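pinging the channel bc i need a second pair of eyes. not urgent but kinda urgent?? the chain im working w is below, pasted from the shared doc
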Amino acid sequence: MPLQDELDAFKVTWTERVGPDIAQMMADDNASLVPLADAALKIGDRFPSAALTDQLGRSVDIVTNAADKPQVVTFYRGGWCPYCSMELRAYQKALPEIEAAGGALVAVSPEAPDHTLSTAEKNELGFSVLSDAEGRLADALGIRFELSEEVKAYFVSVGHDLPARNADDKWSVPFPATYVVGADGQIAFAFVDPDYRKRLDPQAVVGILRHLNSKPHA
């Protein structure tokens, strides 16, 4: 099943569970974020340099690693997000194809390293899961935002304590976003969507990597 079909099916059951008022509130909130998403870094912009800690405590610099092979960088909201878990598992399934196409994969969340480790173990991930705990990389990309009071209240009601999980005392998350970073450190592809229920299918990433690596090098 394509990733978006899986996400759409979950959205239907979630809407039935929470009711039309909550569902409409979230839809309206997503729509209000479109101008912010439109201002995020795009293809041709330089990907910000940042050394982040992975789930095993290792320092990973995405731009430095891109000099050896294109880096696929996918941002997710946190291990508490079912849409994010579905996305991460889909990327894990596609990992052999991503690597065969000449790329490397990392995921980034605002959560503290202990939580990224839990997410990696729970979903049996074979790629690095990086902690952008202070949101500096997401800020530099223009994809982090503060949750509205309505969304915050809903999250509190269902037990999502983001300030505790992110360890920065902020109710903020990144847009779900996926980038491909080339050897020159520039963004070769960018997917940013304010609707957290929409994600870039891993097979699209595989196609992008194959195209990128088929180009003649100077």
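so The longest helix spans residues 82-100. and The chain has a mean pLDDT of 95. — does that match what u expected or am i reading it wrong
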